[in-house]
Amino acid sequence: MLSPKFSIAAILTSLLPVLSFGQEAVRWRYSYEQARREAKQMNRPLLIDFGTKNCFWCDKLDQTTFRDPQIVQLLNAHFVPLKVKASQYPKLVQALAIEVFPTLVLADANGRILGKQAGYIDAPVLQKHLQGTLAKLRSDDRQESPIRQASLERAAPPSASDQRTLARRKRAQELFDQAQADFERRDYPCCLVRCQTLLAYYADMPQAGSAKLLSERIKNDPRLVNHITERMLDCLGELYLQAAEDSLKKSDRRRAVMYLERVVQTCPGTRHEISAKNRLVEIRAATEGRNNPLKSRSQSH
Question: Which domain holds residue 170?
């Protein structure tokens, strides 16, 4: 049996370079300084792909969009494609206000920023962006633009709207990172809660797609579903028992009995059911003693 660390998807991903042998690939540059010099010498725009390690959508971008023949031809013939690891260029990442990965940045040969795309993008949409960039550059060559735009040397600070969007993207990434961590330590209930939060409140973010895949992976595995059910029942039993004790401290025996009876109903055959039944016997014995003081006194003698 395969180790949990090795999924079918991971195996297929590792085989893709072999299966695609012979196909033309994007000729990536990996040195920022060298790519800038090359862009200037060749008078070509840059496409910069900012990514991080263990990034699901970065890997998907590489395995799908950047394998599209039309994208490969456009990038190799008209652009200087550059891959940047965010950890190696933190100041550049900060200057460009990049907080979601992957993020694609388009810049002209002089470093003037022409566009930015945060998150995963499929091939047809990227193709439009690339063709639009080339058309804009041809237009700019004919007519000098009086508007000073942001550049790689001086990135424009994000607007208030951009800051709110970046904050949401950052929160979405944090939630997904936490969901992945929950999955790795087998805390599947918490993982599902975070995935559902992403789907409900961050559906427009790329992390929502990853959250959907992760939640489906859990829901489609009967073993994990059984584990979650048992875990949730255990938590529910503990909550009801605690609620019963809190009610007793407030002298609300009726509510305490209600909580204990719920434990018996929802957690049959568990340690919580035994605790609840024992507590019910104690409460009812104490109630009978108060209602019949003579009987209680005779039993004490």
Answer: 162-220
